[in-house]
Amino acid sequence: MRIIHLTDPHLTSLPSFAAGRFLFNKRSLGAISWSRRQKHHLRSQLDLLVKDIRSEAPDLIICTGDLVQIGTEPEIIQAKDWLDELASICKVILVPGNHDCYQRESYQLIQRYWSSYLFEEREKGTGFPSVFQYQGITFIGLCSAQAEPFWSARGLLGREQLEKLKSILEASSDTFQCVFLHHPPVPSMCKKRKSLRDATLLSYLLKQQNVQMVLHGHVHQNKIYAANECTKVFATASASNVAGHAPASYRLFEIKSGVSDWEVIARLKVFGSSITKELTRHSW
Questions:
Q1: How many domains does the structure of the chain reveal?
Q2: Alpha helix locations (H) across the chain?
């Protein structure tokens, strides 16, 4: 099975008057901040990356959030159009990021417009974790994003979601398990104001259940590290970034069942200007 991980495309545009519209609240500060950073995130770079993804003929695309900037309805609709375009390649699974859930009403808008990509158990009213099983692999999406004060980009899973995750992992222990979320699952992987509040509890659960792989975004960097002795964690840089220190990237995982265990080949593809290169190859 061929799986793509991309994250943090920050693909939507904000009109120049956005800051004025949301004067004196978090969105005004977010719009001002984005006006300074948007030069590093280009739709043309994202389109180049998606074109390359299409040539890889993947079976599944996993997106770990931050499609928008300040969680407004026009942005979320614009991102929905992009998701529909991405879905013309293959099945797409999504979890939201902190910019997507910028304010409380943003999450309701996400559920309205992005519902076909969230794979929540909506008919049961249980929300996240989302679960998708294919070819002996269990994909589990966690929602770490929530509305925060203007000075914070932290995440939280919460007790209920962690308890559900434990049950899902126990029930799928005979499969390859891939957990994906927006925030880093391990403490101290980013500044406190951007961290996952219950990362310690999540790390313990990943170790307890012998989860094989975790994917996340949020940090806008390409990293491979271990949550414990058996869980490999992959962070991927923003899919639209043109900055030299962390250019637009995506990861391609080829996962197949071996003679006695699962075999994984992970490739990182990085985009600098119009040049595409495979930066690393990792297998286990």
A1: 1
A2: 18-21, 26-37, 43-55, 73-86, 104-113, 115-118, 159-171, 199-208
pTM: 0.91
Q: Provide the 10 A C-beta neighbour count for residue 268.
A: 20
CA distances from 225 to 48, 127, 214, 251 (A): 28, 29, 10, 15
Q: Is 211 helix (H, G, I), strand (E, B) or coil?
A: coil
Cβ distance 92 to 83 under 8 Å?
yes
Domain coverage including residue 231: 2-283
- Domain with residue 178: its CATH number is 3.60.21.10
Q: How far apart are the first and last CA of the chain?
A: 15
Task: Provide DSSP, 115-144.
Answer: HHHH---GGGT--SSEEEEETTEEEEE---
Tell me the C-alpha distance between 120 and 164, whole Å: 12
Radius of gyration of the chain (CA): 18
Instruction: Answer for the pair 104, 147: CB distance below 8 angstroms, yes or no.
Output: yes
The answer on pLDDT for 20 being more than 70 is: no
What is the tens place of the pLDDT at every residue in 55-97? 999 999 999 999 999 999 999 999 999 999 999 999 999 999 9
What is the 3-class SS of 146-170, one letter each residue? CCCCCCCCCECCCHHHHHHHHHHHH
